[in-house]
Every structure is written in structure tokens, then in C-alpha cells.
Design a protein that fits this description.
By secondary structure, the chain is an alpha/beta fold. The chain contains 13 helices and seven strands. Helix 1 packs antiparallel against helix 5, helix 4 packs antiparallel against helix 5 and helix 7 runs parallel beside helix 9.
């Protein structure tokens, strides 16, 4: 959990405590408020000390419980302010993958220049439907989330319409590992590599591939996307990070450019894709 996130959670806790102590009918103790709300006293302690993330329902109950219902809007705004930066997969995937894809589509539609980095998977905007389907299934298994795979695939494929609009540009960087990772059956990966090869030369896509043999100035870490110098979306196992502060955007842009110095493009990128195809065929033959 990021320091900024924790600080925001603790600040919300301080505000909750202030409201409890300034209740119009007289200050409430923690046990008194807990009894009024039907909560264990430990929940009051955890919320006020930034040990637990409140839900909107918690905040509504708190505001009503301390006799200050009008404070809910302020509390909810605080919660949305820091939860918008760290979006846990548990909460995001409660309704399946499609709502997450729809949120991405809204941001992509607003963008004109996108800088993407993926170290072990083909970027979503360049995926085939079959490849995307297997990716969603893998993550649904991992997160024990709703399997709305077909709807999620349709939403991701719709996003690719962006690639055919004039004045847009996707600058995509991938590590060679993304060409070889069998996160899907070999036949599906073969079709995906064919699709990737066909992308090279499009005027709305610049595809760079970092070979295994390239010298790296920074480690190949988790994937991220920079949208129009206004938003960074980075993925981790527990959450997506949505970062809109100038320092974070500048840092991720610097990381992208540093990684890009190790990439190859055009015919050299084609050669890496062809080598991955040949290795895939040998692997299939050996099997």
C-alpha cells in the first residue's frame, strides 16, 4: 500500500474522530458509537486510526450516528479522492471484468497519445479476441472473480477502434518475453503473433520490442500506460494504480523512454516476432 494512500486513509480517520467528538448531542465515546451503529468497537478503532478502509455505507452510518448527516458528502469525497488512485482488484472485479474494461475505454477514448509498456503480455489494444479471452480466464481464476469473459472480450475489442482513428497514436513497448509466454494455447499465441506482425507499419501504432539480449538501463518491471500526459494506469497483483499527479506522470514517462532506448522497431521487430513463431513451432513439434 502506498504511503500517499495510507496518509489519506489516516487523514480520513482523523476527520471521523473529530465528528465523533463534536456530535451535536454531546461527544460520543468509541464504545457508545459502536453500540449505536451495531458495530464491534474494534471497527471504530480501525477506521479512526487508518487501519481499515471505510466503505461509503460505513461513512453514511457514521455521519448519521454522530448526528451530522450533512457530513457524508465531505467524507465520501475524501474516500473517492484516495480510492480513485488505488483500485483494488477485489472491489473492481466484484461485478466481473467488463466494468473494468468499460472504465478503461472511457479513458482511452479521451486520449490522443498513449505510451504503453508490457513485460510479459501483449498489450490489450493489440490482442486478438482469443488471446484476450485466455487472459481474462487466467485472471478470473486468480482473483476468484465473476466469469463474464465474452462480455469483457467484446469491450476490449471495441477499444481497438481507437487504432483506426486519424490523429491517434499508440506507442507500445513490449519485452521479448511477451512474444513467448504461453498464457494461452500455442495455436492462439501463433495467431496473436501474426496479428502483432501485421500491426507494424500502421500509422497509428509504433511498436517497439526489447530483445532478451538487449542491455537494460532499468529492470523490466510491471506494465503501465501513460495517457496524454494526464494519467498513468499501472498494474500490480492487488490493484490498479491510477495516478494523475505531475511527478508520477513524469516518472513513468521517464521510465518508458529509458526502456525505449533498448527497443528495436520495424524489420528488427519483425525478426523477433518471426523468431518467436519459429520457437513456437519447434515447441509444438516437440510436444
Amino acid at each position: 500500500m502506498s504511503t500517499d494512500y495510507q496518509q489519506a486513509r489516516e487523514a480520513l480517520g482523523v476527520r471521523l474522530r473529530e465528528l465523533r467528538l463534536s456530535a451535536p448531542a454531546g461527544r460520543l465515546t468509541g464504545p457508545q458509537l459502536a453500540q449505536r451503529l451495531g458495530w464491534p468497537h474494534s471497527k471504530i478503532y480501525k477506521l479512526e486510526n487508518g487501519k481499515q478502509t471505510a466503505t461509503p455505507e460505513d461513512l453514511r452510518a457514521w455521519a448519521d450516528g454522530v448526528g451530522q448527516p450533512d457530513a457524508f458528502d465531505e467524507l465520501d469525497a475524501r474516500l473517492k479522492g484516495f480510492e480513485s488512485h488505488i483500485r483494488s482488484w477485489r472491489r473492481q472485479l466484484a461485478a466481473g471484468h467488463k466494468p473494468v474494461q468499460d472504465s478503461w475505454n472511457l479513458e482511452i477514448d479521451r486520449s490522443r497519445a498513449i505510451y504503453a509498456w508490457e513485460e510479459s503480455v501483449i498489450p490489450g489494444m493489440l490482442q486478438t479476441a482469443d488471446y484476450a479471452r485466455h487472459i481474462f480466464l487466467r485472471y478470473a481464476d486468480l482473483q476468484n472473480s465473476v466469469r463474464d469473459t465474452d462480455a469483457a472480450v467484446r469491450s476490449r475489442m471495441k477499444r481497438q477502434e481507437w487504432l483506426y482513428q486519424a490523429g491517434r497514436k499508440l506507442h507500445a513497448l513490449v519485452w521479448e518475453a511477451a512474444l513467448r509466454a504461453l498464457v494461452c494455447p500455442p495455436s492462439v499465441l501463433a495467431s496473436q503473433l501474426d496479428r502483432l506482425a501485421g500491426i507494424i507499419g500502421m500509422d497509428t501504432v509504433e511498436l517497439g520490442i526489447i530483445p532478451f539480449t538487449a542491455s537494460l538501463k532499468v529492470p523490466a518491471a510491471n506494465g503501465f500506460w501513460v495517457l496524454d500526459d494526464r494519467l498513468v494506469i499501472a498494474e500490480d497483483w492487488h490493484a490498479e494504480l491510477w495516478l494523475d499527479d505531475s511527478e508520477s506522470i513524469a516518472l513513468y514517462t521517464r521510465v518508458w523512454r529509458t526502456l525505449g532506448e533498448s527497443a528495436v522497431y520495424g524489420s528488427d521487430a519483425h525478426n523477433l516476432i518471426n523468431a518467436a513463431c519459429r520457437a513456437l513451432n519447434l515447441r509444438c513439434g516437440a510436444a
